Amino acid sequence: MEKIKQVRTVCIDSYIIKDFEHSPYFQKLVSLCSKRHNAKKIILVNSPNESAIFTYLRQTGLNISSKNPKNCGDATFIGRRPQSLHTKTDDNKNGFEFKDLNVDTVFIIDTLGNYTAKDLEQVFEYAKKIYYLTTDIAFRKPIINEFNAKDFFIINVPLLVNPSNLANVSDILEEHTPFWNLLGANNLFKQTFYHPNSYIYYNPEKALSIFNGETRDFTEINPEDVILTDAGDVSSKTMNSINTLKSEVSSKEQQSQFQVALGQIMKYNENLVSNTIQAVKDYCIPIQEMLAALHTENDNLKELIETRLTQPQVNSEIAEFYEELDDSDPLKAFRN
Question: N or C, which end of the chain has less CB nearby within 10 Å?
Answer without folding.
Answer: N
